[in-house]
Amino acid sequence: xxxxxxxxxxxxxxxxxxxxxxxxxxxxxxxxxxxxxxxxxxxxxxxxxxxxxxxxxxxxxxxxxxxxxxxxxxxxxxxxxxxxxxxxxxxxxxxxxxxxxxxxxxxxxxxxxxxxxxxxxxxxxxxxxxxxxxxxxxxxxxxxxxxxxxxxxxxxxxxxxxxxxxxxxxxxxxxxxxxxxxxxxxxxxxxxxxxxxxxxxxxxxxxxxxxxxxxxxxxxxxxxxxxxxxxxxxxxxxxxxxxxxxxxxxxxxxxxxxxxxxx
Amino acid sequence: xxxxxxxxxxxxxxxxxxxxxxxxxxxxxxxxxxxxxxxxxxxxxxxxxxxxxxxxxxxxxxxxxxxxxxxxxxxxxxxxxxxxxxxxxxxxxxxxxxxxxxxxxxxxxxxxxxxxxxxxxxxxxxxxxxxxxxxxxxxxxxxxxxxxxxxxxxxxxxxxxxxxxxxxxxxxxxxxxxxxxxxxxxxxxxxxxxxxxxxxxxxxxxxxxxxxxxxxxxxxxxxxxxxxxxxxxxxxxxxxxxxxxxxxxxxxxxxxxxxxxxxxxxxxxxxxxxxxx
Lengths: 263, 277
Fold this sequence. Notes:
The structure holds two protein chains of two kinds. By secondary structure, chain A is an alpha/beta fold. Chain A has helices spanning 44-51, 76-81, 98-109, 114-127, 143-155, 176-188, 200-206, 224-229, 234-244; strands at residues 6-15, 18-28, 33-37, 59-64, 67-68, 83-86, 161-165, 192-196, 209-214, 217-222. Chain A has a domain at 92-159. In chain A, strand 1 (6-15) and strand 2 (18-28) form a beta hairpin. The longest helix of chain A is centred in the middle third of the chain and has 14 residues, at 114-127. Chain A is globular and about 55 Å long. The two termini of chain A are 32 Å apart. Chain B has a single domain (63-275), classed as MetI-like fold, CATH 1.10.3720.10. In chain B, helix 6 crosses helix 8 and helix 11 packs antiparallel against helix 12. The two termini of chain B are 49 Å apart.
């Protein structure tokens, strides 16, 4: 592995008085799959959104593919074309068909021709197994199908990096598998991926590294086997035990579990 | 309440709920029928018919009332709507701008033109503009003036409607567009505005209907015979024939447009609902 694909140095982010990220250093190599886990309010989504500057960091540096994203003079639209993002709420364009969702960004942003855009769209719908939904509107699809279309839409732009912001959290449990299967396929194809998730099985089996965040800092960073199965820190152990066996958790006060804080 | 009471089915004292509902509905029907009967009996139908429903007067209005008056009404309204929509779009975007002066300017414009009666705007366009800029002619003569006057008024209302529509599009749509590499302007045009227009279709049509009626104010600009629209045409004819039938016919012509318009919009709304949901 030569230069890291994503490099985060000394990253801080505050929303008013709320200091969400308190100095994050993180490197993600080319083709590496990194899962970011942690309690809600720990800042993991904010960290992800800082990578493509949907959130403006208060301090620190983010470099993606050799370009400093946080440089005020950088052409952020050009950088974002190389970074695909998948949202918890899918965010498909509801006024466009599935195919148009994939072709419009290619045509408007990449200036691809009509035929070329249609070809790339069809190819990526095929990849996520939704070729037969090409002419449907998003509202007629299940959550899992919508999320796969959203992944295909990001892939159609030919990104070098994919960011996933809790991609399965808004799905009915029985639909999670289809989305994870697509993500697993991407990982096997060598895509660089940063995934904020609560899917521990996915993290354990697919991720090269797992990063545990709490209170705006990286608490633990290592192989999934180590972080998930043999966590070194008490906070990691505590979080995992609550996640893996929620029925056994005790009522507690003053944890980092800030209701509704995690955006 | 004692333990014994709770065992029993609670019974209302006096009337039950169902009886009250029946009584209330019955009373409403009685009032309605009484009002209709009172109107029918007390109105002088003979004189009304004489003054408003003279068949031969109505007949001689055709085809001019359609080919001239209605045509002009539609022309004035549509041109005013187009100007208003374009200007309203600009003002809405100014209102949402991150540049302070743009926001203030848009706010001031909206407050002024929403607060003034349309009539005053027409007089202003007709009198003040030629006074202030002697020698300049507004492009399109009367048509241009009407488009401008109606557009200025409509823009104030439409700007607020469009702004609300843009803000009603979920934040995630802009984020998704930006994350795909859209510039803010292009995301606005390709993603946000098309969705906003779906949301504001009903209020925009309302605005169109209001403009239809406001187009009658053109008479304050002074129009030639060829430039008359429905209201002016009807009033002119009413005074030459000393009969109000032309007013009724002109009124029916307005409904000829506005009622189908309402129907079309309900259809569009239902379709958009189906697509977006």
